[in-house]
Amino acid sequence: MEKIPILKMGDFLLVTVQIDLYDRLALNLEADLVNMINKHQAKGVLIDISAVNIVDSFMGRILSNIAQMSKILDALTVVVGMQPAVAITLIELGLPMTGVRTALNVEKGMELLKRNRILDSEEEETTSTDEDDSAE
């Protein structure tokens, strides 16, 4: 059975989809990603779909599901490399893609994940400092 590789890069997971996903493969990717986020406590997921030419409503829902599940597990999802025809199809299908952040390419997607990670770290420090001040 085919599997989409999931690579760990620091606090992030990188998925490069090189083939058009059929339903079973998409469902396996969804389950594998959620498990990997939990296992590695990943703070971000970057999904590169630049090689994908066709996205149907099922695949659109899978991407949205991955983003929502990732958010619950405290990880941001960024989809990169979306072809114009894929973007048009998603809009025509009326898929909201809730929670899915996008970037033009892997480099910009990684910048977005890193920037989000820095903001989260600063927020945690501020919260920690506020809690320390209120304990006094």
TrEMBL record:
Pfam families: STAS
Biased composition range(s): Acidic residues: 121-136
PROSITE patterns (UniProt xref): STAS
Residue ranges of every copy of the STAS domain listed in the record: 2-113
Region (Disordered): 117-136
InterPro entries, A to Z: Bact_StressResp_Reg, STAS_dom, STAS_dom_sf
Database matches in PANTHER family: RSBT ANTAGONIST PROTEIN RSBS, RSBT ANTAGONIST PROTEIN RSBS-RELATED
Name under which the protein is recorded: STAS domain-containing protein
Naturally occurring in which organism (per UniProt): Terrimonas ginsenosidimutans
